[in-house]
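Worked Example 4.2. Read the sequence first, then its structure tokens.
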Amino acid sequence: MSAKPAEIEDGRDAIEWELIELVEEHGSERQALRALLHDFHALLADADKAVPRGFLRAVFSEGARAPRDDVGDDQ
């Protein structure tokens, strides 16, 4: 019979664990916040463009978004 790994029940949710990992990755709360703000500003800048950077870099795969039903109806 194999032993199951013990599960930690300490009341922390998934978001709190993400925060803990983020701080561990960047070394301090300040550096983690800097990284998050940098990514947030990059996303905001990309949202203001007519064509997202991810699309130009071919990151969006075919079928990633549901087809629009109203395409070509007004023409």
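Now turn to a second chain, presented in exactly the same format:
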Amino acid sequence: MNTVDLITAIREDIKLNLREEVLAELQPEIQRQLRANIFDMSDACQYLKISDSTLRKMVKTDEVPYFRQRGQIFFRQISLDGWAASLEKSNKEGVS
């Protein structure tokens, strides 16, 4: 292995380690921020790009994750993202 190859290998190793360290450092904050994003009906409709009536039907049939607080309906962004991801997976499995 010549010097250039050695330097390139060390550089790639440093980049990989740095990327892992940065991700490990930022991941808890990213998760905290995602949990902090709570949508009301209007915000959730905009986020999901669906109508108010469609979302209300989905809530009524427990098709979408939500929670109630003082009679109002709210949605966590992280829950909606997980729900949408599960739909993607089930749609991909159904496609031949």
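Notes for the reader: The radius of gyration is 21 Å. DSSP finds four helices and three strands in the chain.
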